[in-house]
Amino acid sequence: MLIDWNHFTPWSALAGGALIGVASAIFVLFNGRIAGITGIVGGLFKPKRRDIGWRLAFIAGLMAAPLAWLLFAPLPAIEIDANSTLLAAAGLIVGIGTRYASGCTSGHGVCGISRLSPRSIIATLAFIATGVLTVYAARHVLGA
Amino acid sequence: MKNHISNTAALAFSLLSGLIFGIGLILAGMANPAKVLAFLDVSGWWDPSLGLVMAGAIGIGLIAFTIAKKRQLSYLGFSIQLPANRTIDQRLVIGSMAFGIGWGLVGICPAPAFVLLGAGNGKGLIFVVAMIIGMGIYELLEHYRKPAGK
Asked: Which residues of A touch B101 (CB under 8 A)?
């Protein structure tokens, strides 16, 4: 294992992570809900009348983040090498997989592990494992 | 007792929470798919940053959920709804494994996808549309799996 020290950003990673933690803390302690994006978006497919507003508000907040950021600083680089076909395929798999798993990086990886939920710990290990294997296969076996 | 989040304060806190979450993702580097892939590429030049993102988030999260578990109602008076499901089944494991494959293909997971969309990134838009279609496919499969309707 070779660590890429040039791209390692420990302080912004920790601070950004802490902000994600603060956001999840606000959401559970004020709204009483898990800040899991899969669950928040998935709940819109069977909307309960008084349930739609806060779901859309959370998504709107996520989407407004880059705009708020731009008020103070230019956005960091967004580098996506994947073409449209691969993006569409990956999006489909992520959509189906996260709903079967009842959560993704936020719901299981952050909130679930913070709750010390065995389900979420297993889920997080599973998606990190296949994520690592997929990148390994794409970059070092297929050489894409 | 209020079981539904509906009032203005709840909407405001939901918006605020999403906003802080998104700013955290940008600061952390998670809104850059190349950096996410560099974290998953453990056999190449590994960038361990995202491990620290998880550590920072869980560090705060542990405190928040310790408080939340002891409470019935949130500070706004809503019931605190924590998942009760404790079964580790195929749906959880295979679903997570599938999610990891999609994540590893492009370096985008659901929350950063919406940040990319908000930044006006066209590739982010393609991913979000496909992801929502994927979630729709899940709903259809579930619907036909349980025709009686649960």
From this structure: 93, 97, 130-131, 134
* Domain residue spans of chain B: 1-82, 87-150
Q: Which residue has the tokens 């995202």?
A: B50
Residue-wise pLDDT tens digits, B9-68 = 999 999 999 999 999 999 999 999 999 999 999 998 899 999 999 999 999 999 999 999
Q: How far is B26 from chain A (nearest CA, A)?
A: 7
Which residues 5-64 in chain B show a CB within 8 A of chain A?
A: 5-6, 9-35, 37-38, 40-64
Quickly count: other Cβ atoms within 10 Å of residue B13's Cβ: 25
- Chain A with chain B: Cβ pairs closer than 8 A: 506
Is the pLDDT at B144 greater than 70? The verdict is yes
Map residue B46 onto helix, strand or coil. Answer: strand
> How high is the ipTM of this complex?
0.96
Closest CA to A41 of B110, B109, B10: B110
